[in-house]
Amino acid sequence: MNVYIPILILNLLYLKIFCIKFDIESGKERCIGDEVNKDILVKGQYKVSSQPGGQLHVSIYDSKHSTLYSQKNKDNGEFSFSTDDFDIFKVCFKSFSGTLQKRTVFLDIKFGSEAKDYKEMAELEKLKPLDVKLKMVQDLSKEIVKNFDELAVQERKMNQTNESTHSRILYLSIFSIVCVIGLAVWQAMYLKKYFRTRKLID
């Protein structure tokens, strides 16, 4: 019983799963995207309502528009991939049919330890149930630490960006003030010379 308590706590701290349902019209494409950290396993499955004579294209792209998965004319399927770096991926569905009838898409995606098949791991490595639970806790702990490290790196980058932005604003403000003062001095000298030429002042 004690093993389930930390597992529940860790799942509350770091749990990334999403299930979504949406409709897609014929001839149109709809994409769902999310960001993923480095070295994260992503697994998903989809199911689309069948339609006589209808065709379906499913594709997954990263931020560089490289194809991670592609499947045509299949109403259901599974996919999995691992990330080499922090990236944003998107899953795109495109329906083709001779009618205007909408098709319903069910999409289920899991990340990290949630995407791992611990049952298969237990069978292959002949692990006891307690060992499997401990393995889950260990994997979740690593992901939490890694996630906090990523957040710390992003925070440092944001601080550096803010400091750089503040410095640029300061230099730009000083430059603007110098320009305004210089323009005012030049204008005063020009007007003084103009008035002297017109003999309006001594």
TrEMBL record:
Q: Where are the transmembrane segments?
A: 169-191
Q: Which InterPro entries has this protein been placed in?
A: Emp24-like (IPR015720), GOLD_dom (IPR009038)
How does this chain sit within the bilayer? Single-pass type I membrane protein
GO annotations of cellular component type = membrane
Q: Tell me where the signal peptide lies.
A: 1-19
Question: Where does this protein chiefly localize?
Answer: membrane
Identify this protein by name: Endoplasmic reticulum vesicle protein 25
Keywords in UniProt for this one? Membrane, Signal, Transmembrane, Transmembrane helix
- Subcellular localization: Membrane
